[in-house]
Amino acid sequence: MLRFGFAKEDITPRRGIPLCGYFEPRPNTGVLDPLQLRAAIFECNGVVTGIVSFDLCELDRKVVQRFQAAISAAGLDFANRLLFCATHTHTGPYTAPLFDGPMDEQYIQMLVDKTVYAVSNAFGSLSEAELLTTTTSCSNLAFNRRFWMKDGSVLTNPGKLNPDIVKPEGGIAPEIPILAVKQGGRFQLLVASISNHTDTVGGNMVSADWPGRMEREIQNAVGYDLPVIMLLAAQGNINHFNVSNSVNQTNYGEACRIGKGYASVILSQLYALQPIVVNEIRVDAQELEVPYYRVTDQEYADAKAVVQALEAKKTAGADDLTSEGIAKGNSFVKLFFAKALIENREKPILEKRFEEMISLKFGDVLGIVSIPAEPFIELQQAIKSDSPFKMTMVAALGMGAFGYIGMPEVYSRAGGYETKPFRTSPAHDVAPKIIQTAIDLLKR
Q: DSSP secondary-structure letter at 142?
């Protein structure tokens, strides 16, 4: 018998706490919509596991370890079998030291306390449940955001209607696996795995971005507060910008539009959901080393030359470092990346870095595996192609966050900020190791 319990908590920060998601912090000036954590706990034959999802940009592994320690201290012995993940909203507070951004300790402690409370409540409400699955797709809300340009380079977000665009560097992942939980003949949870970046709102007001709007649209349609977990799939090279038109796509209205779009395709499949038999749940985790990238002599010399040439000419304004503004390549942007590269070389992190990956396996039908990074979709495609499960979900930014990760070949292409080295950037050959670890976890 499978049992299920759920609880949620409001984790909206107080006014003034800086927002994470861009290269410089922005103290928030208010709230567009609330942030939540959602704890979905499953139990089968004595094995307890679950998904704890946060409307946050990303979770540092040290924060995840605080969650695990606090849950264990509360007397719950399954903390190490929980998948902790973030939706990647770019309008939530810092919960990882992204670009040395400020983490508010009072907020982090509140997050720890509410995580324990939600997990405890969800565990305490376990009761018999039925799992159902289906797959739908949506191909008009997500786009590969890296493009081959006429000069032979690859550029991220090159700007709308840019005449120098040749073609996208890669494809998208339109499929949306859906997991549903029913209790008492009524849906009690939907989990939708979606490959798209969660960065539509911009600005300095708190928002859960389109996943929050998607949940609200689904709730409005079904007529009650049905919880929805948007399990972020691979999206390191995917976002919502359609470069073939000139429409402004950085605003709250865009979050609402995309949320409605995904809600509509999910709602259309509710009655296509099919029950699955789950007689066991298996959970496996693996710690692995993720080496830091080491800047080459040539890269270091080139970066120093950029700083020497542009230091006196730099332009001010963090607005130049938004997702669309990066491609402008003005002095401020060039200096930012050059200084980040120099820091990698002059202040290398010498200790080894270890991250964790976890897999949740429901019978022989559904496998969920985490990646503690923002993977390009090619990693997800490789994992799914060798997965033993009929349905596989990849949980990006799960159990930690060490940056973007693409296949080794993308790092040799000039342009694209995902591949530019920062102090904490991973080595360029990490992707095959991540793929193999994920497949091994699913096959155990």
A: -
**Whole-number Å distance between alpha carbons of 317 and 325:** 11
Strand 391-396 relative to strand 366-371: parallel, antiparallel, unpaired? parallel
d(CA 175, CA 238): 14
What's the rounded Cα separation, in Å, for the pair 85 and 69?
Answer: 16
Q: Supply the Cα-derived Rg of the chain in whole angstroms.
A: 21
Helix (H) or strand (E) holding 255: helix 252-267
Tell me the helices (H) and strands (E) count for the chain, helix number first. Answer: 8, 24
Structure tokens at 80: 């190490």
Sheet holding 354-362, edge to edge: 281-289, 354-362, 366-371, 391-396
Instruction: Report phi then psi at 262, rounded to 5.
Output: -65, -35
Q: How far is CA 96 from CA 102, 277, 400, in A?
A: 9, 38, 9
Burial (CB < 10 A; 0-12, 13-18, 19+), residue 16, is exposed
User: Is the pTM above the cut of 0.85?
Assistant: yes
DSSP for 417-439, written as a single string = GGGS--TTPBPTT-HHHHHHHHH
Task: Please give the single-letter amino acid code of residue 152.
Answer: G
Strands 47-54 and 82-86: parallel
**Residue 71 pLDDT exceeds 90:** yes
Residue 326 has pLDDT above 70, yes or no: no
Q: In angstroms, what CA-CA distances link 71 with 66, 75, 80, 344, 395?
A: 8, 7, 9, 36, 21
Cα–Cα dist 275/278, whole Å? 9
Of the listed ranges 180-184, 306-310, 428-432, the one predicted with least confidence: 306-310
Mean pLDDT (the chain) is 94
Place of tokens 């401020």: 332
